[in-house]
Amino acid sequence: MYLTYSRKSIRFLVPILKFSNVLALAPWYNFEKKTVASAKLFKLYAVMIALLTTTWSTYCLTVRLNVRKEIILLNYFLNSMVEITGLVTFLVTVLGSAFWNMDAWHKLIANLSFLEDRNNLNTSNSTDKSVFKNANSIFLMGTFYYIALYIFQYLSSDMPASLSSLVFFFYADFVATNIAYNIVLSITLKYKDLVSMLTDARGCSKNIRKVKQLYLKIDEVIEYFNNIFGLTILGIFAHLFSEALVGMSFTNYNYSHSLILIMMSCMYMLITVFCPVVLTFSCQAAFSESRNILMTCYKLEHDISPISWEAEELARLKYILVNRPPVFLAAGFFELDKRTNLGLLNTITTYFIVVAQYMSQSLS
């Protein structure tokens, strides 16, 4: 039944959240009772997952560094950085969902459910039956991609077991980004609903006031979103940056299996770059849709009297729209918008030049 839910209903996330519960990336939320289930047990489970993952990651990294004795010093550092950034990102997400972000998760889902109530935006019955637009189908395709990636790695590598942690951490990044992307897309659709509601509110101050209240409720959702995913998104960008440098460094060093290493790095980077890029563009789309609400306000001003109650409510709404635009943050370090991808590209290019120069000197 959930496979037909559109992103307009928070329940479309149920299958993805159920799967992420296994990895402890999100708390065990009960949609029927609208509360986090077994909070204390989940905290214990998250700590156990964190300890097991840390032990597993340390073992895998130690094996890889001992096997690749021919790697120069910089590559020891780069390979370690990929593993460490992946591990830290995973631990921050897991422990955050169990401890400091559990209440934020509850409030985020509760506010989204409130917005979907039939007395508010009335979007919970919308469906999306297209396979390539359905969130769960996209999630399954991404999962199969990582399974295929590990199979290719297992068949082509001389140390497949020690590389398993790399695939796991990149897959955890994918799951977290997938959840974040779909929540942002749900917010975008709710902004579209507000545009429609505001257009239909022509000449009615009560409806304009309701649009203002719902916009502020969405603003709370974004605040909880930033609290939950801020550090995770920052870690994912750091993980991507590390893997990009490792992939590029392979082109400057003559490994006996350099072609395989380059192919594997390209496969990692393809999906790893794709997820944050799509997330940043979805955040930009949400911002643009919120500006459509402001443009609708300006259009409505021409059709109502400047001394009416409607004009006063419209002025208040405009003030909120101008002073409280939606801002998606990576732990406060930078905003997620179209400029983020260009900044990431510039940073990777700059450090690639530094890495290439260092490796050329080392090889000579």
UniProtKB/TrEMBL annotation:
Cell membrane keyword on record: yes
Transmembrane segments: 41-61, 73-100, 138-156, 168-189, 224-246, 258-281
UniProt-annotated location(s): Cell membrane
Membrane topology: Multi-pass membrane protein
Domain of life according to the entry: Eukaryota
Key words of the record: Cell membrane, Membrane, Receptor, Transducer, Transmembrane, Transmembrane helix
Family of the protein in this entry: Belongs to the insect chemoreceptor superfamily. Gustatory receptor (GR) family.
Role this protein plays: Gustatory receptor which mediates acceptance or avoidance behavior, depending on its substrates.
Protein name per its UniProtKB record: Gustatory receptor
Phylogenetic placement of the source organism: Eukaryota, Metazoa, Ecdysozoa, Arthropoda, Hexapoda
